[in-house]
Predict the structure.
Amino acid sequence: MDSRIMGFESPIFSTLHHIFDSAEDTDKSNNAPTRAYVRDARAMAATPADVKEFPNSYVFVIDMPGLKSGDIKVQVEDENVLLVSGERKREEEKEGAKYVRMERRAGKFMRKFVLPENANVDAISAVCKDGVLTVTVQKKPPPEPKKPKTVEVKIA
């Protein structure tokens, strides 16, 4: 409600009104996602993946049609996050040719997977064959069960 309607036409009230209005605008902009976040979210949503668990490994299968191995990055972040990213570039338009329909996806792609505790981040392999990227993460061997400690009882 406008403060002038209520009879408060003082400069102090208009200043307070302005401060409160700008504070509300600031709150909205601080809560809005950043452009980088939106870009990453779109890239992740557009990159479907299958994840399989085997007795000795985890396998991530991602379709990457038309990409060369140099266009794909496979990294481990923060000791347990597998990051698969890259970029598919649009073909350069040739003089005299124009697109009638453009359906194939171009641009950046990315997927992040939180690896379980038993994943061995030092034993990761990645192979791209026929447009399908397969990343294999070996599992750590299970810890050996601890043997009970026997304490000798002495008679006093």
In short: The chain is about 20% helix and 35% strand.
